[in-house]
């Protein structure tokens, strides 16, 4: 390969892979100081663009190339290549993209577009015949953290304890050794009980099929996998050297979840009440001295103990 006929397009040629295909915390680059550990899996790849094929002509003269392998880190030996036994012939790993569509493909694509437009026109005609169709309300999908970098770095999370993030209204639960965030809107109710030397904390979640009010709407992705409930158990016995019993984490989590739930539900109720309010224009004051007035008025129920009389005056587009 002639270096003068190509250019490298990548800044990071190696990145870790695991729960997510590309782990942002395991990018191998000049600014990353993270130490690779045994058992971690990395994707090693190399990509080039603007390669020149001297034997081709036209648009196929210039092409791109992207190759890669998946490796796992060992303790002392060299990394194991997981894709060593995979097929490497060009017909097995190569992907060829066509730059132009054939006449038959264009015709099929045009037929699909015509079918979609025809169906939409038919739906509009049926909607006009049946009257105004009510739109189905979809339950608001709330995202706790847009990326893993926004998650808090509290010691409770690294110790795999329950942590309540009051700023983002999120409960971080340890599941299978990993901290998993759940927004407070997904928690239906919680309960706590003490049986013998153990404290139990049970959390029930909203899920498709559960009893949800009509005003809450449907789930945005009802076919996904949902967690219905989860129970944590912790001992009430304090070991020598410990400042508090392990169950104190469940007690604190129970109290904070209740507080965040109450705050969230209060705000949601206020937003629903504001949905029915009509937005009014700015009041235009009328300088006419003969404006209609109602005197000696007071508010019921009384806001303060002492009743205060007032006056209601009509202006150009409202009252004051």
TrEMBL record:
SMART domains associated with the record: SPT16
Q: Which UniProt keywords apply?
A: Chromosome, DNA damage, DNA repair, DNA replication, Nucleus, Transcription, Transcription regulation
Role, per record: Component of the FACT complex, a general chromatin factor that acts to reorganize nucleosomes. The FACT complex is involved in multiple processes that require DNA as a template such as mRNA elongation, DNA replication and DNA repair. During transcription elongation the FACT complex acts as a histone chaperone that both destabilizes and restores nucleosomal structure.
Tell me the protein's name.
Answer: FACT complex subunit
GO CC terms: FACT complex
Q: Name one GO molecular function term.
A: nucleosome binding
Going by the entry's taxonomy, the superkingdom of the source organism is recorded as: Eukaryota
One matching Pfam family, short form? SPT16
Question: What region holds the FACT complex subunit SPT16 middle domain?
Answer: 162-320
Q: Does the keyword Transcription apply?
A: yes
Residues that span the membrane, as ranges: none
Family membership noted in the UniProt record? Belongs to the peptidase M24 family. SPT16 subfamily.
BP GO terms, sorted: DNA repair; DNA replication; transcription elongation by RNA polymerase II
Its gene is: dre4_0
Organism for this UniProt entry = Portunus trituberculatus (Swimming crab)
Q: What is the annotated localization of this protein?
A: Nucleus; Chromosome
How this chain assembles, per its entry, is: Component of the FACT complex.
